[in-house]
Specification:
The structure is a single chain. The longest helix is centred in the middle third of the chain and has 33 residues. This protein has a 5-stranded antiparallel sheet. The mean pLDDT is 86. It is rod-shaped and about 80 Å long. 39% of the residues lie in helices and 24% in strands. By secondary structure, the chain is an alpha+beta fold.
Length: 109
């Protein structure tokens, strides 16, 4: 077998590692995963839920589909009616509201 492995490498062997090094490395990766991915996602979900709960009649909203309109009706089942203009009104699920716009945004468009 010494044909494939040099004698110097074969003689030294693998360096001795602490049995806790793998546990410490997994803990560090777990902390990085938590602070870089899970925590910001939980914060974003909490902010979006707070936004959805604050929607009321008369608010101007932007949907995830790009529609801009004024909320005309809020139901307890999780749906809202949005007036796009004087004649068109759509009913969407409350989850699809991306942002509540400042008053007067629709007139400025």
């Amino acid at each position: 077998m010494s044909f494939f492995i040099s004698d110097a490498v074969a003689a030294t062997g693998a360096p001795a590692q602490s049995p806790y090094s793998l546990v410490i490395m997994l803990a560090v990766f777990g902390l990085i995963f938590y602070f870089m991915i899970l925590r910001p996602q939980q914060k974003r979900a909490k902010d979006h839920k707070k936004l959805m709960d604050s929607i009321s009649k008369g608010d101007e909203v932007l949907t995830t589909g790009g529609l801009v309109g004024r909320v005309t009706k809020v139901s307890d089942t999780g749906y809202i009616a949005i007036a796009l203009n004087d004649t068109n009104e759509v009913v969407i699920k409350r989850d699809f509201v991306a942002a509540v716009l400042p008053k007067g945004t629709i007139k400025a468009l």
